[in-house]
proline dehydrogenase (Salipaludibacillus neizhouensis), 301 residues
Amino acid sequence: MITRSFFLFLSQNKFVKNRATKWGPKFGAKTVIAGETINEAMKTVRELNEKGLAATVDHLGEFVNNREEAIESMEYCVKTLDAIAESGVDCNLSLKLTSLGLDIDRNLCRDNMLRILEIAQGHGNFIRIDMEDYSHLDATLDLLQELRQQFSNVGTAIQGYLYRSENDIRLLEGINLRLIKGAYKEAPDVAYQQKEEVDQNYLNIIKSHMLNGSYAAVATHDHRIIDKVKAFTKENNIGKDEFEFQMLYGFRTQLQTDIASEGYKMRVYVPFGEDWYAYFMRRLAERPQNVSFAIRGMLSK
């Protein structure tokens, strides 16, 4: 039986990654990744907008090894923000702090973020800091609070499988947060391991964040969770302009358009770029049945 742990192992295996990237994003990855260039990403976003869907794009890449790579990543984010503005699409930008040098030099990462936020503010755009594994959580939240002293157009993501998330939600009151279940394999001493416990904690943080009047981006493909959120917002008179739903590009596409047709904001997370391998493996880890994407991709070549 193919397990979640197996795909998470593959996501970090350099030998398999090197082999896979030589094939290009063929073996199913093209189903969930919007190409390798900014132009391809903008084309995909425009098509989503035409269906009534908003978007957020993410140039794939993380854990850079030197200052030059971190600066290049920052400059690519700026180019992407300029492209969003020039094309006039309904789209935000998501990014990872490790791609901007968090593991190399915190000040370098901060300066890169300040530059990105300055450009985003000039375009009237919003930046979402993706949450990474548990080892980067405190550094991410610490830097977020520093950045928000100068810029309000930035938020992050909180993971429902962590024990500490309800407390983090309270500390982040008033900040636009993406609320997710979590995609990394974390230890039992910091994270719930059973699906039922994760689901319950996830619902708890969604409700807590909404009830304190903060904007919530509910990121899930679980239609049962979505239905409960719809019912909760109606019961508590929370307007459709006070939250949104988010899903990944290529997953449950009919449900995405159905939600948008009901008048809810539906934002699609659109990854692009050459460094697609780790992202794709984590998506398979979340839903191992999606390995069928890979098989169909390989057989079509």
